[in-house]
Amino acid sequence: MLELSGQIIDHEHRLPIRVYYEDTDFSGVVYYANYLKFFERGRSDYLRLIGVHHHELAALPEPLAFAVADIHVRYKAPARIDDLIETRTRMSGLRGASFHVSQRLLRGDQVLTEAEVKAVCIDLNGRLRRLPPDLQARLAACCVNEKDA
């Protein structure tokens, strides 16, 4: 049975997504900004599966959150209404207050979109904070050197 949050296979998180009418423009093609939402779902569910929960970070004595600091997206082919697509996410780097994620959106074997994401750990005032040691350890255990992938 497939988990609602997807699954991790060989250090890669996989999350199936159905393209709905609300995701598309008038022509039935996914609106470009919605790819960012698909990638966000992939990152959030990946973190959830490795035991990193946003509500727990917010409940810390000194609350923390994640923010996207940088994202580079490459659109290769369109997703369309009713497509079954899959977001694939790999942790690709970790340093101080930030972590890097490589993501792809596929329809079958066809890569539709790719993204390189830098996320940072912040306090509730938006200031950068180093990742706490336990969180850093969880993320580091998932890191994959892209040359080895």
> What proportion of the residues form beta strands (DSSP E)?
35-45%
The largest pleated sheet is described as: 6 strands, antiparallel
Work out the helix count. Answer: 3
SSE-based structural type: alpha+beta
Mean pLDDT: 93
Radius of gyration from the CA trace?
16 Å
Describe the structure.
A six-stranded antiparallel beta sheet has the order 1-2-4-5-6-3. The two termini are 26 Å apart. The longest helix has 16 residues, at 34-49. The protein contains three helices and six strands. It has helices at residues 34-49, 54-58, 133-142, and strands at 7-9, 12-18, 64-75, 84-95, 98-107, 110-123. With 149 residues, the protein is an alpha+beta fold.
Quick summary:
By secondary structure, this protein is of the alpha+beta class.
What would the keywords be for this entry?
149 residues, alpha+beta, six-stranded antiparallel beta sheet, 3 helices, 6 strands
Task: Give the helices and strands, then pairings.
Elements: E1 7-9, E2 12-18, H1 34-49, H2 54-58, E3 64-75, E4 84-95, E5 98-107, E6 110-123, H3 133-142
Antiparallel strand pairs: 1-2, 2-4, 3-6, 4-5, 5-6
